[in-house]
Amino acid sequence: MTTVSVVIPTFNRREYLREALESVFAQTIPVHEVIVVNDGSTDGTETLDEEFPAGGIRWIHQCNSGPAAARNAGVTESSGDFVGFLDSDDLWMQRKLETQIRAFASNPGVGIVLGRQQYLHHRGGGRRETGLVLPGQVASTALVRREVFDQTGLFDEQLRGGEFIDWMSRGRACGVRDMMSDEVLIRRRVHGANLVLSEEPGASSLAAIRKHLQRRRQRAS
Question: Is position 216 within any domain?
Answer without folding.
Answer: no
